[in-house]
Specification:
The complex is a heterodimer of chains A (65) and B (262). Chain A is mainly β. Chain A has one domain: Ubiquitin-like (UB roll). Chain A contains one helix and five strands, in the order E-E-H-E-E-E. Chain A has a five-stranded mixed β-sheet, with no helix packed on it. The longest helix of chain A is centred in the N-terminal third of the chain and has 7 residues. In chain A, 28% of the residues are buried. In chain B, 40% of the residues lie in helices and 16% in strands. Chain B has nine helices and ten strands. Chain B has a five-stranded parallel β-sheet. A three-stranded parallel β-sheet of chain B has the order 6-7-8. In chain B, strands 1-2 form a two-stranded antiparallel sheet. In chain B, strand 9, helix 7 and strand 10 form a beta-alpha-beta unit. The chains are: A mainly beta (65), B alpha/beta (262). At the A-B interface, strand 3 and strand 5 of A face strand 4, helix 2 and helix 3 of B. Strand 5 of chain A pairs antiparallel with strand 4 of chain B, so a sheet runs across the interface.
């Protein structure tokens, strides 16, 4: 199905957020996730199901002011 | 130096340092050390799968021993800022959040309506909110009503290095909120600017661009640390009141050649 990951449309096989992270080689992190502009905590990724057109954000530590 | 207390935590340094725009990670690490900063700001950004930049940066920050203050830089609405804060809490393991909701593209000016709304939500969720705001007294009042215990007024637009844009406004803010820790954030370009805000009685200053973009960021970090300490000491010591005319510092009485005196 097609979903948007960090602003980019992707064709993915994963049906849960946890499976998506594995499919896209995110490893252990550190990173945080949001689905359709709602925070999804680490412990809820496995039970968070994806559907066509979802928008996922995956963010990691970065320099900031 | 007298300690700085923020949300119940005490610090001996009154310099907060941003971690962006340094020539290299090594310069950043050395600048943190030279500044004596015990609090550094960080952010969250999109990362591609397989990339490990975030992990490397986070290891560098943790090695510095400084406490992290994640920001919500770039957020344009209260809801974006709230979700970013929630993500930051999980990644960085801290309830502290430097809340930025910006409105104007050119000035990166705090957007006060979204800022207050986000502050209220985040305080209800247990965050220790450090709102980046202007010198506006009414907005400050609303932020305190929302539960904020620290305010971060700007001196000038982010990265501008202009120093104090509105001296009267900052003085009024300090006078109005005597008990609230006020950290001047953004727009300080030179150590003299930082000394000036500390002399006004502000509790701390946050630097980033002025240090990171100096020809020698490590030396500049040290220069700012000295200026902030000097400004704080001067404030505590009590500055003299300026006068319009001269007043002799050497005693007048007993002056030689004085035809009228003893």
């Amino acid at each position: 199905m097609k979903i948007r990951v960090n602003g980019e449309m992707r064709e993915v096989a994963a049906v849960t957020l946890e499976a998506l992270l594995a499919e896209l080689d995110y490893g252990e992190g550190p990173y945080a996730t949001a689905l359709n502009q709602q925070f999804v905590r680490k412990g809820a990724r496995a039970e968070t199901r994806l559907k066509e057109g979802d928008s996922i954000e995956i963010v990691a530590p970065k320099q900031g002011g | 130096m007298d300690p700085l207390t923020l949300y119940g935590q005490s610090f001996s340094s009154r310099l907060l340092l941003g971690t962006a725009r340094y020539p290299s990670p090594a310069f950043l690490a050395k600048a943190i050390e030279a500044s004596g900063a015990e609090i550094v700001t960080v952010s969250l950004r999109r990362e591609a799968g397989g990339a490990r930049g975030g992990e490397t940066f986070w290891e560098l920050v943790r090695a510095s021993g400084a406490r992290v203050l994640p920001n919500t830089a770039g957020c344009r609405t209260a809801s974006e800022a709230v979700v970013t804060a929630q993500m930051a809490r999980e990644v960085f393991g801290t309830d502290w959040i430097k809340l930025e909701v910006t409105g104007d593209e050119d000035l990166l000016q705090p957007e006060p309506f979204g800022l207050v709304e986000a502050a209220r939500v985040l305080r209800s969720e247990g965050f220790c909110v450090f709102p980046y705001t202007t010198e506006d007294l009414s907005v400050a009042e609303r932020l305190l009503e929302a539960g904020c215990r620290v305010l971060m007024p700007w001196a000038a637009p982010i990265g501008s290095g202009r120093g104090i844009n509105n001296l009267f406004g900052l003085r009024a803010l300090r006078a109005r909120f005597k008990e609230t820790p006020l950290i001047v954030d953004a727009g300080l370009g030179a150590p003299s600017h930082a000394a000036a805000v500390m002399e006004l009685g502000f509790d701390a200053a946050l630097l980033n661009t002025a240090v990171a973009r100096a020809a020698d960021p490590v030396e500049m970090a040290r220069a700012f640390a000295l200026a902030i300490d000097a400004g704080r000491l001067a404030h505590r010591a009590g500055l003299m009141t300026p006068r319009d005319f001269a007043e002799a510092s050497t005693p007048v009485l007993g002056r030689a050649f004085d035809e009228h005196g003893a």
